Amino acid sequence: MKPHRYLKNVTTLAYYPEKCTGCGRCVEVCPHRLFYLQDGKAAVRDRDLCMECGACRRNCPWEAIAVRPGVGCAWAIMLSELKGNKAVVCG
Amino acid sequence: MTDQKLQGPIVECECAGCCGSSAPEDQPEPVKKKYVAEVGWVVNKLEIPIGSVPVVSTELNWRDRAGAVLVRFGLRRMSYALRPGLYAVGRPNSSSYVFVSANYKLSFDHLRTHLSGLDAWILVLDTAGINVWCAAGKGSFGTEELIQRIRETRLFQLVPRGTLILPQLAAPGVAAHEVSKRTGFKVVYGPVRAADIKSFLARGLMATEEMRQVRFNFLDRLVLIPVDLTLWLKYLLLGIVILLALRGLGLNLLHWPALYPYLGAIIIGSVLVPAFLPWIPGRPFAWKGWLLGLLWALWINVEQGFITASSFAWAKAMTNFLLLPAISAFLALNFTGSSTYTSLSGVVREMKVAIPAILMAAGLGFGLLIAQLAGAF
Question: Would you state the pLDDT for residue B1?
Answer without folding.
Answer: 33
